[in-house]
């Protein structure tokens, strides 16, 4: 069974056609990196997978449960909100701008959703949170506030916060794009560790080296479609499509 199956996804913003029939399947334990130029639809597609954006047409299935599919008129029809809420809990989301609650401590950022959504007792939520903070190397920062942390530290807290909900799938939307180069490595290390633990991951990224090293598959998107996909090293080191070669030559400066 696929962890995620998205078929023929279309998404428009007014007259702007952002996704034009994108399909993707992700297997358990697989790391899929989505690369491509800005404006190609990468982040929109990722957001559609967990209903941060709605789609106009297509089908999305998460661990065998259909979130949205085409109705009789060919337009997307979503399942009821309660079912969607349960499906979305399977997916952790990490954004490029951290999105931490500034008025809450690091620990409080991690325990809030498990307590409110999953009804986890506070003591249990705090124990899990501290374990996750140790995992990302920030246990000593549990009582600090986001403004007291570097960008790299804030993003590691954001990853720990997503993991606190025990997701089956982790989605990363350009998690290092807001970071200075020297802070990028500490975030990528946490993501590499997750990959080694066989966490299912979909990563929208400009970090081509990370994609080559960690991803099982690379998807290259441009102008709202998937132009090329395949084994990471093959797509990056030996792209078949001219548009892929052009993009990578600019990014890698070769």
Automatic annotation (TrEMBL):
Keywords: Amino-acid transport, ATP-binding, Cell membrane, Membrane, Nucleotide-binding, Transport. GO terms for cellular component: plasma membrane. InterPro entries: AAA+_ATPase, ABC_ATPase_HisP-typ, ABC_transporter-like_ATP-bd, ABC_transporter-like_CS, MetN_ABC_transporter-like, P-loop_NTPase. Pfam families: ABC_tran. It is found in: Cell membrane. One of its GO terms (molecular function) is ABC-type amino acid transporter activity. SMART domains: AAA. Belongs to the ABC transporter superfamily. This is Amino acid ABC transporter ATP-binding protein, PAAT family. The keyword Ribosomal protein does not apply. The keyword Nucleotide-binding applies. It is a peripheral membrane protein. Residues 4-248 form the ABC transporter domain.
